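**Entry details**
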Amino acid sequence: MHFENTLAFASQLDQQDQLSRFRDDFHLLQKDGKPVVYLCGNSLGLQPKSVKAAIDQELKDWAELGVEGHFNGKNPWMYYHHFLTEKAAKIVGAKPKEVVIMNNLSVNLHLMMVSFYRPTPQRYKIMMEVSAFPSDQYAMETQARFHGVDPNDAIIELKPREGEYTLRTEDILAQIEANKDSLAIVMMGGVNYYTGQAFDMQQISKVAHEMGAQVGFDLAHAAGNINLQLHDWEVDFAVWCTYKYLNSGPGGTSGVFVHEKHANNPNLPRFAGWWGHDEKERFQMKKGFKPMEGAAGWQLSNAQIFPMAIHKASLEIFDEAGFAHVLNKSQILTAYLEFILEEFKEHLTIITPSDAKFRGCQLSIIVKQDGRKLFDFLESKNIMPDWREPDVIRMSPVPLYNSFEDIYKVGQALKNYFAS
């Protein structure tokens, strides 16, 4: 598509946008009575307007039914995760039985490592990208220590080539092969939080399995943002949060994927809780854990009804919009932002890959001089990106609620800043 940096062009794209109506389904921010261009969906998605009614329904059932809400509520709490799995599975490219919504991301990551990180004296190494999100770094460090392994020895960090910001797929695969005899698991982010790079999860999974390693991904910055086909890629497990691109509230619930090949493996260790026990027998209160089939068998505790109600409201928007349409608009919207930013390439560098196959809607930029000053200026102009130390501004135009005119406004603000 041929882009133009004009208000008329941006307005035309908005008029042609079949998803533009969904913008009205969210609470858009204002500051001092003026609209805010919100570009922080990679950190916390905006609130869907349907959330209040969703929570009010569960509050009503609690008030009127008490404990009987588990069975007699409008959305019986006993089965609440079932109301989420089909729609969540569509977003990550999975079968419904391979997905469950539960807990929070870091908890789920540790639960998955219990099952899939089984180090031996020969195979004990964990491969991850350098500068992974701190949650992943801390989880891998402490998992290694828990198993009596020195994390400095166990953890292999994949680093970009000198002078580059992102990893090349061929270098990742080469490192997997080079460590084939000692590698226990590849555990990477699906999209790196800092650079916005999306990794080739299909190739990584294929080669890691050929080398005898397990494969897991933290999809915190990928779920709801990029095309995922976890089942077809034969990823062993994945975890994600729901409060970023999935707009499900601060500290919201989390998703888990476990490939169906592991669904009924009795030799796969796991921690157990009564919500993962066969729900047909759950209230018989007997000894002897009998897991539900698929990912649901990894549940521990009662469903988090209020966070799940929020997530249900958001998933319904995605389902109505159609995730393929969301991804298509995301590519065009992000490409337009890239086009706008390229006009200022003498002042800034985009470190996110330009190939749409290796990114979602986040673009990370490094300003060549005093990036924090530019960030503060943008905020003063009612434009809200976010800042990540030491020197990156992240901008994420989210297709469900950002417009092409939003992107045009970013360009105008940058023009004013660099002209001053």
About this structure: The longest helix spans residues 323-342.
